[in-house]
Amino acid sequence: MHRLNPEDTEAYLHLAAIYVSQKKYQNALQAYTKILSYDDDNVMALYYAGRLHGELKDFEQAKTYFEKLLQIKPNFELALLDLGTLYEIEGRFDRARESYEKVLEVNPENKKAYARIAAIYVRQKEYDRAIFEFEKLSDIDRGDLSVRENIGLLHLEKGQYEDAIREFNMVLASRLKDNRIRLYLGLALQEKGETNRAIEELWKIDPKSEEFKTALRNLMALYIKSGQIDEAITKVRSLIAQEKTNTDLYMILSSLYEEKEDYEGAIKTLEEAGSIEPNRIEVLYQIGTLYEKKGDNGAALKYMEEIIKLDPENPNALNFIGYSWAERGIKLDKAEEMVRKALEKKPDDGFIRDSLGWVYYNKGEYVKALSELQKAQEAVPDDPVIAEHLADVYLKLLDYERATEFFQKSLQLEKKEDRKKILEEKLKNLQPKGK
Asked: How many CB atoms lie within 10 A of CB 368?
């Protein structure tokens, strides 16, 4: 066709479309450029050339084509929408919104323009304005329940739980088996403090769905908060009876026993999980930490060493072993090596940073210890052990004022009564030498 007529615009458009479907974008651009060489005001060639430059991330050139097109045809909706998208990519949200608002001047029922304006307000955390735009979108299309879902999520984000609950219930009236919406409803009820209603809704989620994993974690938190741990144990055991090889369920059950301080029950549960997945590191690590809480440090270290055999770079196990040695004042050079290795893997972990500080403390390198523990405290400001470690270092450096400050802080943060007594004794005995 081109040989017969070198200016056959329709043939060039068809050819370009074929190239686009084959992702041969440069070839397609050549076809559009050919059209524009003899018809520089061709709207379709300008539009698709702009889109292709956008696809190729040549945003400036894309905007050039769209802007030229809009000079010829100011009300071209698709170009206005795409131009708005380019401004969004550049972070120029005011210009993007202007472009979408021009679309609405042309077509007050353009759903995509409303949705994009709302999305901009969400990104800017202007949730009330986003809700206002979504409400306008809902007025245009009452059947689009995804709009009501978005409004519900924004109310949830703003802490307007009653409004969120209303929206999610509205969606569920038409989509009874929508697990995602059921999860959102449960979360809204949980945040509102309606524990029993939240539990009821979360149990309605299909246990085989992806959403149920999140629901189950929240259910356990609700049961623990409301003191219904035994009921939670019964529920999880019934789930295990249906899915005997699901080790995640065993880990949840173990955490419930741990909450009751039934460490034997928690360990036994995880050992059952270990018989299903012998080399699952999360299971081995949790058993180790339970033995530590039980006071059997030797058994705890045995499990951590097993993890190191499976994964020599595992930062949690490396940190656990290094910290344990530091606590006992043994193998301090090796302990430092292991904790440093863990810190390389997780440089922002305040607890690992605390371990390094504690190694230095036990090596008598108090200035180094102070530096590391200050970083740990910045990362985890509400941990009583880190605060106590800082106080211990300040005491060694004879800074009694700062030592007092951090012993008091540790005491305020500490929840365990036996630990509180130790801290109270430290404060009682804290005074400058010779006074």
From this structure: 16
